[in-house]
Amino acid sequence: MALACFVMAHTAELLLPAGATAYLVGGAVRDRLLGLRPYADQDWVVTGTTPEAMLAAGFQPVGKDFPVFLHPWTRQEYALARTERKTAPGYHGFVFHTAPEVRLEDDLLRRDLTINAMAAPPHSEQAPVIDPYGGQQDLQAKVLRHVSPAFAEDPVRILRLARFAARFPEFVVAPETEALMGDMVAAGEVDALVPERVWQELARGLMEAQPARMFEVLRRCGALQRLWPELNRLWGVPQRADYHPEVDTGIHTMMVLSQAVRMGAPLSVRFACLCHDLGKGNTPADILPRHLGHENRSEQLTRRVVQRLRIPNDCAELALLVAHEHSNIHRAADFDAAALLRLIERCDAFRRPQRFHEALQTCEADARGRLGFEEQPYRSRPRLERAFAVAAALPTAPIAAAAIARGAKGEAIAQAIHKARAQAIAQALAEAPAQRSE
């Protein structure tokens, strides 16, 4: 790795305009100091030059808002050192200034966290890190701290900090940074975020080591209430202790998410875990701690969330399916063949088998996401998987041909296939009675 960095650095220097210097910045420097490999994507800041000189040297422009260039050979990004000035609410309201006299320290000052505001000379991993704002000290103390008051000018930084809390679970948020984020929420900065950017950061955070920490940070500063009020509403909502020893619905939802992480689940499953119980947040007070009908309410609220945040189809469709059917999937351990097949068909499993298996994975995370149930077997999943495998393996063309020969049409043909699948499932269950008592 050191040799690769050395070669790339010298390759860049051979092409840089006269008087220009490139520095490795941001996540790659942070991860190198943490001993993490592979390092984060390598980004470079260039001082002492102009956009025109970079173009003349063969670098290719990619930045829309400020000068960023691709190295013609390595394709790594080289951004000119810059300063910025806030001109409007939100994260688009900035005017950037680049010039040969802008120093590296000026560029680092505009970054989000001290641990991301360090730079390294291009030649060697052993060279001293350039650290004007205490990033190494905060790395050692495991603190996420903003670099300067300019943090408050970009609401995306709240989401980024929350994501870093999920990536580095042993780090804590500096009290003054958490207070600043609360002030930003109160000032309406978070309201200016566009849905696509919110989802981009949430999706990345969901795939980190402990994504529940991301939502913990967003809740504490008030941002979750502004960005995802349906999820924020779950904390403090009681559930029946005989089903949910953890009682609190918000805590349960984070436990479900943690189980999905433990299972190595994909993004779609992790998002569905967050949505499956949204309907418990508006259960009528007179029936608490029961949550009758929460499945339909969860589906309705999930539909609102996926539309507002413009969630990708694979995540949205799985979340809607799980919200509507998760209670039935939980009960499937005791279903007979006919009921199993009806559930499989409602899940559109024959056309969407991958989504069906992800729904079962989500429900297993839900079942295990309860105090004392983390290691308990989940009987519904193997029973449904067995039933689906048997039904899916059944050749349907001969069944349809026989039905047509009897004069069947349309729905009657579909009913013949349904009946044959139900019989095949019933036979498979009879041949494996032990599966009923797993």
UniProtKB/TrEMBL annotation:
Assembly behavior: Monomer. Can also form homodimers and oligomers.
Role description: Catalyzes the addition and repair of the essential 3'-terminal CCA sequence in tRNAs without using a nucleic acid template. Adds these three nucleotides in the order of C, C, and A to the tRNA nucleotide-73, using CTP and ATP as substrates and producing inorganic pyrophosphate. tRNA 3'-terminal CCA addition is required both for tRNA processing and repair. Also involved in tRNA surveillance by mediating tandem CCA addition to generate a CCACCA at the 3' terminus of unstable tRNAs. While stable tRNAs receive only 3'-terminal CCA, unstable tRNAs are marked with CCACCA and rapidly degraded.
Alphabetical UniProt keywords: ATP-binding, Hydrolase, Magnesium, Metal-binding, Multifunctional enzyme, Nickel, Nucleotide-binding, Nucleotidyltransferase, RNA repair, RNA-binding, Transferase, tRNA processing
Binding site for Mg(2+): 41, 43
Binding, CTP: 27, 30, 111, 160, 163
Stored Pfam families: HD, PolyA_pol, PolyA_pol_RNAbd
MF annotations from Gene Ontology: ATP binding; CCA tRNA nucleotidyltransferase activity; CCACCA tRNA nucleotidyltransferase activity; cyclic-nucleotide phosphodiesterase activity; magnesium ion binding; phosphatase activity; tRNA binding
Misc remark: A single active site specifically recognizes both ATP and CTP and is responsible for their addition.
Annotated ATP binding sites: 27, 30, 111, 160, 163
Source superkingdom: Bacteria
Protein name as catalogued: Multifunctional CCA protein
EC number(s) on file: 2.7.7.72, 3.1.3.-, 3.1.4.-
The gene coding this protein: cca
Needed cofactors: Ni(2+); Mg(2+)
UniProt remark on cofactor binding: Nickel for phosphatase activity. Magnesium is required for nucleotidyltransferase activity.
Domain HD: 249-350
UniProt-listed GO biological process terms: RNA repair; tRNA 3'-terminal CCA addition
Lineage start: Bacteria, Pseudomonadati, Pseudomonadota, Betaproteobacteria, Neisseriales
